[in-house]
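Message: I would value a second opinion on how I read folds in token form. Give me a protein, with the fold worked out from its sequence. Write it directly below this note and I will take it from there.
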Amino acid sequence: MPTTLFLKLSANYFFYFAVLGLFVPYLSIFLNGKHFSSREIGEILAIVTASKIIGPSLWAMFADKTGKQLSIIRLGALLSLLFFTALAWLNSYWLITSVLSLFTLFSAAILPQIEVMTQNSIRRSAKIYARIRLWGSIGFIVLAVFSGEIIARFSQQAFVYLGSLVLLLLYLTTLILKQPKIKSSATIKQSSLISKLLCWRFTLFFLSGVFLQISFAPYYGFFALYLRDLGYPAYAAGLFISLGVVAEIFIFINAGKIFTLFTIKSVLVFSLFVTALRWFLLAKYADNAWLLAFSQILHAASFGLYHSASILFIQQHFDTNQQSRAQAIYIGGVYGVGGAIGAFATGIYWLNGQGAEHTFMLAALMAFIGSLFVLLMRNAKKSFA
């Protein structure tokens, strides 16, 4: 693979995930600085997350019809930049909510199309993809670690300035990409998704994912505020989240070996049980830095392992010509619906920090219920045990 192409693709991953390294941990800090209550923050996060329900399917359909992934990436990056930058001048609850929702909708156009372009450019080489994707994790870590201290020193407006700068760099890197040429292939007859979607095993798998995302809501939305209330320094949230990302990278690198030893169903159950333990530790022992660090290492199972297992499940459950639609439905439903419900409920139970322990205990319960759904799944003939 040419070095220049590797650098171009890696730069796109770096800046895209760098935005997430800022957005995921510190959006609640930004909203709290705007004097919104925890309930209002939960409502905003719920509405913003709900935009993920339609976003993936909408852009996937448009990309499949036009075949112009690069145009979609550039449009998504440019509009994401414009809407994110607009936050600098907004203070109204509904204006901020609307702009954040539009930002999420357009940013949802970027990653799936980068993935498609990357796979087509590298001829689906897993080794090269892992090296390129690694730069996304590095970008996330860099912004997550340094943004907290910068925001603490210069006020919540630094959140907007940092995000706008990174989004500008992301847009500029999309301008140096070229649409890869794809050899035309015979049209594959489209089969119906209905029977596969209504299958009892998939329904249980889908519900387990929804409950897992509900359980993640306090962590994704309020973790930085939680650590601030516990007296940790401003950079702590980014540092601990980055520790989880490092653990996640380790799992992604070794996932192939894991699935030669254990079935997909057993990995899903293990991941959900571990996630329940993780939220229990956050609820009861987050004031202990060592146990907090250990809970972050468990991110390797609660995200890395679960994500890998869910991708394999979808690949094996759906036909080849159903994969893109199945992924869009799964992401929109699980991350959109589960994330929105979880964010809204967290806003209610958080009580401006007074209900933090109770909220994480409820999150642990949601993850545990998710594991029960997987246990009820019927064994597949070959791949599920």
User: Anything to note?
Assistant: Residues 276 and 364 are 4 Å apart (CA to CA). Residues 185-189 have pLDDT under 50 and may be disordered. The chain has two domains: 1-179, 193-379. The two ends are 39 Å apart (CA to CA).
